[in-house]
Specification:
By secondary structure, this protein is low in regular secondary structure. The protein has two domains: 1-73 and 114-220, 3 Solenoid (Pectate Lyase C-like), CATH 2.160.20; 77-113, no CATH class. Helix content is 14%, strand content 5%. The chain contains two helices and four strands. It has helices at 83-95, 97-113, and strands spanning 2-4, 11-14, 192-193, 211-212. The chain has a two-stranded antiparallel ribbon with strand order 1-2. Strand 1 (2-4) and strand 2 (11-14) form a beta hairpin. Helix 1 (83-95) packs across helix 2.
């Protein structure tokens, strides 16, 4: 089975199996991967690079994603690190400046329209996301029952209507996160939040041990 880039269709990884269920992809470089509707049950994605990957509709029951990076890809990541592509780009700049201007215009449009990590409606029941980088991720309506999100970076994440029953969010960073309508019943002891964090109606984060912060330093 091949895992391909969602835009360039470049093969990022080959797995000797018909599905990815239970696959060992620890540390894999899967930036920009198309994993929509993939069967990722019990898969090992610890410390994997999933920046800019699309996992809409994927099933990750029991998946291990501790230390994985799942935030938005850096600019121009859609080229997939292709050396031939870069060579062609340089040649175009030198020989056809007008054509390059058109390419640059299209590139800018792609960058400003590129969505953040899409995990909406994804089944992450019991997934281990300890320390995962989920800044700005779309986790709306995701199934996160009993998920391990301890120390996860969820700044600016969309968790609206997510099912977080039994989830472990201790020491997670929830600054700017939106949990409106989420099913709670999870542990948020020592989790950080601020005035921009949105909670379900009637939920008292401080009573549950969460820590309100005035301001956090920018990440390096």
């Amino acid at each position: 089975m091949e895992i391909k880039h969602r835009i360039t269709a470049q093969v990022l990884r080959r797995v000797e199996a018909e599905t990815l269920r239970g696959a060992d992809l620890a540390g894999a470089r899967l930036s920009g991967a198309n994993l929509d509707n993939a069967d990722l049950n019990d898969v090992n994605l610890e410390k994997a690079d999933l920046r800019g990957a699309s996992l809409e509709g994927a099933v990750l029951d029991g998946a291990r994603l501790a230390g994985a990076s799942l935030r938005l890809s850096p600019p121009l990541a859609f080229i997939g690190g292709s050396i031939p592509f870069l060579a062609m780009l340089i040649l175009t700049i030198l020989t056809h400046p007008t054509l390059f201007q058109g390419f640059l215009y299209v590139t800018v449009l792609m960058l400003i329209s590129q969505p953040l990590l899409q995990l909406g409606c994804t089944d992450l029941t019991g997934a281990d996301l300890t320390g995962a980088d989920l800044r700005g991720a779309d986790l709306s309506s995701a199934l996160l029952r009993k998920a391990k999100l301890r120390r996860a970076d969820l700044r600016g994440a969309d968790l609206r209507s997510a099912n977080l029953a039994g989830a472990d969010l201790r020491a997670a960073d929830l600054v700017g996160a939106d949990l409106t309508g989420a099913v709670m019943g999870m542990s948020v002891a020592d989790a950080r939040y601020d005035e921009t964090t949105r909670w379900p109606e009637g939920f008292d984060p401080q009573a549950q041990g969460a820590i309100r912060v005035a301001e956090l330093p920018d990440s390096p």
